[in-house]
Please model this.
Amino acid sequence: MGYELTQQEMKAYFKTLTKQYRLVGPIREKAKGSFSDTDKIVYGVFEDIEDLVLEEKAFYSPKEFLMPIRETLFHFIDGQIVEPKIDTKPILIFARPCDLNGIRRLDTIFLKNGDIKDAYYERRRQLVKYVMIECREGFDTCFCVSMGSNTYTDYEAAIRFEGDHSLLEVVDSTLVTQDLSRVRKTDFVPEYIKENKVKVEIPPTDKVNKSLFEHPLWKEYTRRCIACGRCNTSCITCSCFTMQDVEVSDDGLLDERRRVWASCHIKGYTDMAGGHGFRKQNGERMRFKTMHKINDYHKRFGEHMCVGCGRCDDVCPEYISFSKCINKLSEIIKEESHE
Amino acid sequence: MSIDRKLVTKNAYRITKIRNKTALRVRVPGGHLEAKYFQIIQEVAEKYGDGTVHLTTRQGFECPGIDFDQIPQINKMIRPLIESLGLDVDYGDGGYPAAGTRNISACIGNRVCPYANDDTTRIANSLEKAVYPHDFHFKIAVTGCPNDCIKAHMQDFGIICLTEPQYDSKRCITCEACVDNCKKKVTGALSVKNFNIERDIEKCIGCGECILKCPAGAWTRSEEKYYRMVIMGRTGKKNPRLAMPFIKWATEEEITQIIKNTYGFVERYIDTSLPKEHIGYIVDRMGYQVFKKEVLEGITLNPKALVAEHIQWHGYHYKTDMQFNHEGL
Ligand code: HEM
Ligand code: SF4
Ligand code: SF4
Ligand code: SF4
Ligand code: SF4
Ligand code: SF4
Model:
């Protein structure tokens, strides 16, 4: 069912929903940017719909609400294992199609990768419903159309923000509150962006082979990439983590096991006991990420991992563009198959 | 030709080596101005001067080769520039108020530089309002971070903008980027303890590099901005030396008040038998403890602020020139 809401009606409607849900969306954190006197747009909990920031892309993705940066799995207390409770108030995530497709990739990794589901992920995932933010324009670095992640239909509600006559589609009947009985009905269905400024051509997975590992392309990234890890931490689909066993008390009676984000561009990733590591060069890390995003994941799950949100471009301090890298790789493969 | 030399220099025109020719000096507090005013400077240089402009070390323009009798016309012409820079407008069409206190200069600051912890031009402008015009020869400069691009360490008052990094362990992935960087580039104030990052507040200089390096947003800036003030650096023909730290983790209000109080200190102790006793030499003569006591008078410092207990300035004395063996001559 579609509705047309004034700003006041929107505020009232979402205010009602805050009784049942934590609203999570892109919000402005004043003066929390890395540079002084700058703000940071992040995914966070908000109460007033006017706090949503739509004109800029969030620096980080909403993934931290499904896989927290640091998550305590359990405490060891004097020989017993205790799992800490989590906040079980359901969450309404306001996100664009790219991010919702991204969360589907996370679902695949945590819930459909082998026989065992990740219980820690699942307990949070079950709490989440989506309000899809209609995205018809995109931003400069997005390439969701090329990745087929510009559309998403499995949402509970969708919204087009348009000042005093925002349009809302509600699919999930539990989201239809009293507030909506008073507003004008329409037959709104969200539209999707059809063309981005950035387009990528993904090399066919059967053309990618090990000879590419030695290509000078990766040397370029060894020179340019500083392995800061921002491309991974901001990415909606990067889902790697590591474990930390923390000794909390001196007598060893109280300990904590937690998992923490880890990623292929960051120090320590897949380092083994004794200090041996497989990918010492930053270009090799770039190659590993690229292959995971647009090749290996596809081989296993039938779709690409990368959803083309473009955040890795936005946040790279060295101006390394992932879409450019994909296109370079495609060119190289085309040339090599002509030879 | 009859010229009141004192009045002319007060008006930002200098005596030059060419007889009967002066040079206009246009100071730009904080070193940042709208490009449209270049037109005025260009016009002064081409119409009244010799067609050249010198960029001064303290962030001003100097237009040489001007006849003294053109001063009134030029003063009218540069009026919009003076107004836009927010300089002392009580002068009316009287020209550019200059004085003993030198242009308060600033590095480019956070309007452009990613390292800067504050808007240095804004601070320079607000200090200008607090102290200008004044006869005493003070050199003040503001720099955005401890890289000190403006050379705050060469000033009587060098102000270095700081932030106090705030750590949120819930966002930390223990990548150690902040730790490695602080060790390599700064003071090694960070260490890992139990997968958390600990900041040694004695070693931390508030440069904010850890915030810039963090990929997860675990480090953020403090709401309050802080400043380190280094004092009594100088060049000159006697005893060049670097400024030494006087106060750290001070607020903008505090540093402003300290500078204002120093004018009072100089007023009380300056040796008027000398042509122009420079503040550093007055502090040398009176001793640091007297200076410290008097300039902090009436200021209630914020709880984070720390004041140097003693200061020993280094540098060297030209008159000893100990580096050279003159015996062979
Ligand atoms: C050919 C034999 C081995 C191979 C191929 C191998 C491979 C690996 C790999 C790939 C990892 C990284 C896992 C990750 O991504 O987190 C790892 C971690 C580790 N391996 Fe091995 N390993 C071998 C033998 C051993 C042996 C003999 C030991 C102990 C005696 C050992 C102890 C460890 C430990 C403790 C870690 C975890 C390191 C950490 O996360 O800090 N490994 N190993
Ligand atoms: S953000 Fe850029 S520099 Fe940092 S790790 Fe990723 S590609 Fe390298
Ligand atoms: S790799 Fe880059 S473009 Fe692709 S999903 Fe991750 S952040 Fe978005
Ligand atoms: S391997 Fe790298 S690219 Fe792939 S999910 Fe992990 S961090 Fe992201
Ligand atoms: S502010 Fe500078 S000195 Fe302090 S911990 Fe961070 S990097 Fe180190
Ligand atoms: S850089 Fe950030 S995430 Fe990495 S160890 Fe430091 S605080 Fe933690």
